[in-house]
Write a structure and sequence with these properties.
single chain, about 210 residues, mainly alpha, two-stranded antiparallel ribbon, 5 helices, globular
């Protein structure tokens, strides 16, 4: 489903924040880059030809898609290294460490694209939901679109020097957390209970895996 999305854009500030790491500060709330995308439901594709008749709303759809892509990819950037810590079979490890870096490449590319989304406010003509995309060409380093490289942040222990890293990468419960994140986004709206049962079982199995266990 790409027409009823609720998009968490806190990754934008998470990767620009040099003082917090969700692995070390799990209760810290990173500000949203586009707060209105994080509430209600938004479409990232035209639902009918009628959605293409208003240029401003059509641009809002494109902007939504531009933020949706890196939101997915930042999750993958964390998921693969987190799962790699649980891999025992070398082929499984090879799969994880081969796919993971490409997720990060996609993430950086799409986050750069998202930063160029034209600032605007639009109202969905079908649902009446309003969305506002702010201008991210700002001096505030938490929101500055030019800062696409991950800022150094605390890693492993607060006593150590800050380091530029993928975050989070803590492995505990990561598969179930990812499934919940995608579900909360609305990506699976319309899927059957059998689908959710299967995905839940797969996620639980992944979280149950332990490095060194045959």
């Amino acid at each position: 489903n790409l027409t009823q999305l609720t998009i968490d854009t806190s990754w934008w500030t998470r990767y620009r924040d040099d003082s917090h790491n969700p692995d070390l500060d799990p209760n810290f709330t990173f500000p949203q880059a586009v707060p209105t995308l994080g509430v209600n439901q938004h479409t990232a594709i035209p639902r009918t030809d009628a959605d293409t008749t208003d240029a401003n709303f059509l641009q809002a759809i494109a902007n939504t898609a531009a933020f949706h892509f890196p939101t997915i990819e930042q999750g993958g950037s964390s998921l693969y290294p987190a799962l790699a810590q649980r891999a025992t079979h070398t082929e499984v490890l090879r799969i994880l460490i081969s796919i993971g870096p490409t997720e990060t490449m996609h993430f950086q590319t799409w986050s750069d694209v998202a930063g160029n989304a034209p600032p605007l406010t639009a109202v969905d003509p079908v649902t009446g939901v309003s969305v506002t995309f702010p201008d991210l060409e700002v001096e505030d380093e938490l929101f500055d679109k030019a800062l696409i490289m991950p800022e150094p942040c605390p890693f492993l222990d607060e006593s150590l020097p800050i380091c530029s890293i993928i975050r989070p990468t803590k492995t505990e419960g990561v598969a179930m957390a990812t499934l919940q994140f995608l579900t909360d986004m609305g990506l699976f709206i319309g899927q059957s209970q059998a689908f959710f049962d299967l995905m839940t079982q797969l996620a639980r199995d992944a979280d149950h895996a332990r490095h060194g266990r045959v």
